């Protein structure tokens, strides 16, 4: 079964259930791993996510996903997990969560005028085509096409 079709079928059903439990469904992936196909849901909340939260969501999704049968009977494993601190920013939710926070940008080619493939700055704004980041006290609007990855900077 096509991964995009599975995600498209699962997202609205899972989003309602996850939301009703008090969490945010951030992303859904359907991919091949060593053990076979895996349907992975990433959740978040203002208070963070514990293993108990993941278990609670997983149990709540079991029956509705069985009824939905998004893979047309093909076996898969269901994983529910938190975003993780170092997960790349890809969704509107993540960009909103990390607005005005420090992020690391990795580029396909060195970014001019800095001539570096990795830079850190403060995430200010974004849209479908660009990301605006404060780098060395200067706002830079950068095409998303030139960015390989944006991740939150983790400070301990």
What can you see in these coordinates?
There is one protein chain. This protein is 27% helix and 41% strand. With 156 residues, it is of the alpha+beta class. It folds into two domains: 80 residues, 2-Layer Sandwich (GMP Synthetase, Chain A, domain 3); 61 residues, SH3 type barrels, CATH 2.30.30.100. The strands form two sheets. It has a five-stranded antiparallel beta sheet, with no helix packed on it. Helix 1 packs across helix 2. The longest helix has 18 residues. The radius of gyration is 18 Å and the shape is elongated. The termini are far apart. The relative contact order is 0.14.
How would you summarize this macromolecular structure in one to three sentences?
This protein has 156 residues and is α+β, with helices and mostly antiparallel strands. It has 3 helices and 8 strands, in the order αββαβαβββββ. The protein has 2 domains: 80 residues, RimP-like superfamily, N-terminal (GMP Synthetase, Chain A, domain 3), CATH 3.30.300; 61 residues, Roll (SH3 type barrels).
Strand-helix topology:
Elements lengths: L2 H18 L3 E10 L2 E9 L6 H18 L8 E6 L9 H6 L4 E10 L4 E11 L3 E6 L2 E6 L3 E6 L4
Parallel strand pairs: 2-3
Antiparallel strand pairs: 1-2, 4-5, 4-8, 5-6, 6-7
Label this structure with key terms.
27% helix, elongated, five-stranded antiparallel sheet, alpha+beta, single chain, 3 helices, SH3 type barrels, 8 strands, GMP Synthetase, Chain A, domain 3, three-stranded mixed sheet, 2 domains, 156 residues
């Amino acid at each position: 079964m096509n991964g995009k079709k599975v995600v498209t079928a699962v997202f609205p059903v899972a989003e309602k259930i996850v939301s009703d439990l008090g969490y945010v469904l951030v992303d859904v992936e359907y991919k091949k791993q060593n053990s076979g196909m895996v349907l992975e849901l990433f959740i978040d909340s203002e208070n963070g996510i514990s293993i108990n939260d993941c278990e609670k969501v997983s149990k709540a999704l079991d029956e509705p996903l069985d009824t939905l049968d998004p893979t047309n009977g093909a076996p898969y494993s269901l994983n529910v997990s938190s975003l993780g601190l170092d997960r790349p920013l890809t969704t509107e939710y993540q960009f909103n969560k990390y607005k005005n926070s420090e992020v690391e940008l990795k580029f396909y080619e060195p970014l001019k005028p800095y001539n570096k493939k990795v830079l850190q700055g403060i995430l200010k704004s974004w849209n479908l085509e660009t990301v605006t980041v404060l780098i060395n006290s200067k706002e830079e609007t950068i095409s998303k096409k030139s960015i390989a990855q944006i991740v939150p900077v983790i400070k301990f």
